[in-house]
Amino acid sequence: MSGSTDPSDNPCTACGGCCAHFRVSFYCGELSDGLGGMVPVELTSKVNDHLACMKGTESGHGRCVALVGELGQPGIGCRIYARRPSTCREFSPWEADGRPNPVCQQLRHRLGLPSLAPLLPEQVAPLAPA
To answer: How many whole angstroms separate alpha carbon 57 and alpha carbon 21?
Structure first.
């Protein structure tokens, strides 16, 4: 997420929709029993020889085992946030240009949450050089 680093400014801390919608799959090298990975292996399921996913999300539309709190309510969060997989780290409520992520908007609406506003130009992180 671009902009403020204050957790109270993070719309995810009152949503959790993506954590109960997507299959959270990632390269198995991210597992804590692998080559320096951090994702707790006991919270994951094997997808194939190269991929793992968070338990509860195996088929999609299931709640991630690491999600704590009530969907759409303040205080929802990830109990392994600092150790979450790259898939979670890379998902943002906003597109690179500051427009709200359309999938995030849909999931928020399903939970009865308001739409996110676009980020202001000064809140959008500059793109890294290629």
So the answer is: 8
Write the pLDDT tens digit of every residue in 76-118. Answer: 999 999 999 999 999 999 999 999 999 999 999 999 999 999 9
Q: How far apart are CA 41 and CA 33, in angstroms?
A: 6
Give the distance from CA 89 to its chain's centroid: 6
Q: What is the pairing mode between strands 25-27 and 77-78?
A: unpaired
Q: 85: closest CA among 35, 36, 37?
A: 37
pTM of the model: 0.86
Closest CA to 67 of 52, 92, 91, 84: 84
Task: Identify the CA nearest to 69 among candidates 26, 31, 17, 121.
Answer: 17
Helix (H) or strand (E) holding 105: helix 102-110
